[in-house]
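ok new one. same drill as before - structure tokens go in, u give me an amino acid for every spot. 341 of them this time. try not to just spam alanines like last time pls lmao
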């Protein structure tokens, strides 16, 4: 049924909050279940429950396994055989947002991330209004309105497609609100940006780790604002301006938290668009970008492919900026730092 409106519902067993649904959202499936330690039958003896939901080709579907007791995990098989696994789509709630590739059954298996957890959960499968498709070179002008509320914020959805290894640049520009952009990949992994564009605008370089589609969410920083915006999708056609091959060594400099680090400096100018990439096969790299006086400007952990880091910003002032190369955990080894303009 269409054009339905649900108020928040509380299940007394476990006090689980069910997502609020608004007009043009259709609940395809909803159930309450419990992960029990003696369920068994899964790898590593993780308890789990399996469900089958009929979906149609082209449907824009959101799946959420919500719980206030356990850290949920979802394994899914789409009608065409594609597999999806996710842990933290919405806080500690597992889920994903996908266009269905075929008509048939969506098979969902709910379990806990930790083997020793048990408790209640709700599984909700919702069909959302069709998102607009974006192609490289598109500039979309639109307006966020109060009726565009979904789950916990006012937002618009779009989707883009690409081949493995493709990079694109997304800009969300608004004079009415503090722009905030998210990109949700095939496995429910989310990239986001708040203020990497000029002023309070958002800019994000997205890398397709595998061929397929990604969902783009245009919203505001607090999720409550309305107003006009422009969303741009551009090719990543940057020029390499500097490249450094380095190595973090056990006897190198260490930060206050004990992690190894190296520092690089570059002269930046106000309004300059810069992309910084940090790659390593030896450790999980993390990038920090700061002003000359040490104030923090930007940070990234995993926006590159695999566990690599990527920062894309428009510089707010003309000065010497500092780039810090460090591992996420205590690690060492070779890395490559690349600066694009």
């Amino acid at each position: 049924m269409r054009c339905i409106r649900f108020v928040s519902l509380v299940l007394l067993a476990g006090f689980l909050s069910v997502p609020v649904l608004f007009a043009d959202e259709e609940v395809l499936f909803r159930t309450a279940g419990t992960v029990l330690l003696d369920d068994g039958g899964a790898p590593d003896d993780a308890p789990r429950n399996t469900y089958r939901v009929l979906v149609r080709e082209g449907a824009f579907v959101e799946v959420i396994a919500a719980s206030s007791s356990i850290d949920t995990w979802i394994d899914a098989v789409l009608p065409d055989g594609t597999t999806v696994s996710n842990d933290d789509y919405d806080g500690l709630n597992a889920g994903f947002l996908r266009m269905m590739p075929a008509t048939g059954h969506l098979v969902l298996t709910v379990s806990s991330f930790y083997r020793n957890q048990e408790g209640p959960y709700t599984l909700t499968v919702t069909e959302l209004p069709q998102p607009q498709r974006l192609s490289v070179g598109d500039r979309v002008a639109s307006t966020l309105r109060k009726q565009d509320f979904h789950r916990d914020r006012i937002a618009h959805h779009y989707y883009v497609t690409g081949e493995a290894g493709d990079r694109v640049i997304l800009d969300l520009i608004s004079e009415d609100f503090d722009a905030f952009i998210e990109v949700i990949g095939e496995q429910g992994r989310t990239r986001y940006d708040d203020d990497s564009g000029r002023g309070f605008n958002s800019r994000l370089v997205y890398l397709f780790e595998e061929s397929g589609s990604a969902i783009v969410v245009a919203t505001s920083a607090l999720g409550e604002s309305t107003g006009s915006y422009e969303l741009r999708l551009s090719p990543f056609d940057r020029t390499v301006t500097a490249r450094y091959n380095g190595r973090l060594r056990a006897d190198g400099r260490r930060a206050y938290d004990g992690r190894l680090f190296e520092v690089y400096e570059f002269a930046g100018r106000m309004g300059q668009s810069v992309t910084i990439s940090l790659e390593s096969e030896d450790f999980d790299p993390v990038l920090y970008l700061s002003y000359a006086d040490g104030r923090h400007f930007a940070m990234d952990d995993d926006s590159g492919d695999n566990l690599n880091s990527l920062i894309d910003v428009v510089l707010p002032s003309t000065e010497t900026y500092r780039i810090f190369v460090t591992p996420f955990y205590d690690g060492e080894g070779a890395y490559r730092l690349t600066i694009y303009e």
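The domain at 132-235 is CATH 2.60.120.380 (Jelly Rolls). and btw The longest strand covers residues 26-35.
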